[in-house]
Structure formats: C-alpha cells, structure tokens
C-alpha cells in the first residue's frame, strides 16, 4: 500500500486542524475502515501563513493556489471555513486534475448508513448518527452533533459544539455557528448563517443571518451594524 500525496488548500486555523485530522487518520491506518495513508506535501495558500506554526506541525507552505496544476494527480482537502471560497477552490482543484478526499478523525462517533461525499472533513469528537448524508466538502468542526436522518447537501460548515437534531436538512453553503442548536425536522435554506448560540425552532429561508433564542432573521440594517455574514 503506497501513501497518497495530499495537499491542503488554506493554511489558516481550520486548514491546520484538518492536517491534525489527517495525522490522526494516518495513525489509525491499520484499522480496516481507514486503509489509506496520506503523504502530506504541504499547504497551498494565497496569503502569508505563519511559517513557525506550519513548521511545528511538520508542514510547509508550497505557494499560492494558482500553482494547483503543479499537483495534478494528487489528492486534496480544503481547509477554508467560508463555503463560497470553498466552492471556488474545489472547482479550481477539480479542473486542475486533483481529487478530493474525505478524512474522519478516529475519535468521531459514526453511526450506520452514513453516506459521505469527497472533500468532507470530520474533526475530533464529532457525533454523527444513523442514516446521515454529508454532501461534498462538508466541514464538521470538533464536538458538533449531527442527528439521525439529516441531510447536509454541499459546502456546509458546522462549527464547534453545534447540535443538529434529527431529520434536519441543511441546504448548500449553510453555516451553523458555535454552540447553536437546530430542533428536529427543520430545513435551513441555501447560504443561511445561523449565529453562535442560536436556537432554531422554525425553518429558515435562504440568504439570511439568524440569531437569538429563538433564532430570528436579522434585518439588512442589523447585518451591516453587526458585521454578520449574509
């Protein structure tokens, strides 16, 4: 079994967390459900990532994402929280001949009948129940909970400690903030952002920012004042 060459797009906080998931995955590679070992080539990032932080992880900055074509045939993960940026980078990587992979931290509790698409990152101590669908490039941050029969379509981000109850649908590019909760049976529309600590008890339309207990959409003027993402 040969190692699979891997690059991570984005060397910020979540990119480095994703690398930790890769390291944990590799350490557990002897388990039957984790047969592949990844050779981490480094990070592609258009900014100026902290070289000391990368060096302490044993990684390096390879250059900007414009050099993706140099890594044709390699595998990739995207370590960027913003779903819009993640979608763009995935398109560029796929067009450049790279292949998205999924990594799951060995501490995650995974139920039966999980369907998971390429590009998904499941961090430490995540709980995913039975009959869950995770679409392409989903990010599940540490300690979040995904209940039974949930559908997370694509480019969804669930931040640390958020709880998604059973039979919830999160449409494309939804973000669920740290410590937020969504009760059972709801649908959250495309590109909606659920604020940290919010309690969602009703369906939410697309393209809103919802905050509070119970969660309510902000008005446009409130979004500008708070600097929230819409």
Structural summary, described in words:
With 230 residues, this protein is of the alpha/beta class. It folds into two domains: 4-101, Rossmann fold, CATH 3.40.50.20; 104-217, Hexapeptide repeat proteins (UDP N-Acetylglucosamine Acyltransferase, domain 1), CATH 2.160.10.10. The chain has helices at residues 13-27, 51-56, 83-95, 220-226, and strands at residues 4-9, 38-44, 61-63, 75-78, 99-100, 103-104, 109-110, 115-116, 121-122, 127-128, 133-134, 139-140, 145-146, 151-152, 157-158, 163-164, 169-170, 175-176, 181-182, 187-188, 193-194, 199-200, 209-211, 216-217. It has an eight-stranded mixed β-sheet, covered by helices on one side. Strands 7-10-13-16-19-22 form a six-stranded parallel β-sheet, with no helix packed on it. Strand 23 (209-211) and strand 24 form a beta hairpin. 40% of the residues are buried.
